[in-house]
Amino acid sequence: MTEQTPRTVLVTGGNRGIGLAIARSFASQGDNVAITSRSGVGPEDLFTVKADVTDAASIDAAVSQVEEHFGPVEVLVANAGITHDTLLLRMSEDDFSSVIDTNLTGAFRVVQRTVKGMMKKRRGRIILISSVVGLLGGTGQVNYSASKAGLVGMARSVTRELGGRGITANVVAPGFIETEMTEVLDPELKKKYLAQIPANRFAKPEEVARITTWLAGDDASYISGAVIPVDGGLGMGH
Q1: Alpha-carbon distance 238 to 234, whole Å?
Q2: Which residues are catalytic?
Q3: Percentage, residues of the chain above pLDDT 90
Q4: pLDDT, tens digit (0-9, with 9 covering 90-100), for 142-169
Q5: How far is residue 222's CA from residue 116's CA, in Å, rounded to a whole number?
């Protein structure tokens, strides 16, 4: 498959953290990058559209805006996600279903909407941002772990359906990343997490971004249905 630059890249939840690092990584190599945010507000240097991944009509409108501005989406990074961590016996059904609806069903909505343009071009890259806990599990994260594990089955099913049309679908599974979320952790809790990581450090968002841009490039054209860990060895063997 021969890819042309600039491509149209869409990163959901690309206004901060890992999503923003991914968006800027694609932009730095000359791609036309659009990001979604629920507020519609994003960095001035990136084309931002308002979108709520729990609302199919919102996704349709947002993708239509991107298509009008840049053309059909050729690279999709489904990154938008939420957490509602609590122990199983305290977890409400809404705690569970809201996380599934955003993290898993939300990814489905975006993939289904953008893949139409990829099929016409017979070219495309779908990258789903999962988590090490999707396969490793996490205390108090039955909902989050289930949503992130589901992305693996989604990528592999999309690969079987659309692999013959020049479209790949892969999963990136980050571990602990230096973001706003980890900055506010209690120092003792950080030490506990670090003790589980063979690399003995948290990753930087840019390290996840580099793997994501690589998966969208020519060098990864024969990789599909894969789970790429960026976790310092935390989840190895899973």
Answers
A1: 10
A2: 144
A3: 90
A4: 999 999 999 999 999 999 999 999 999 9
A5: 21
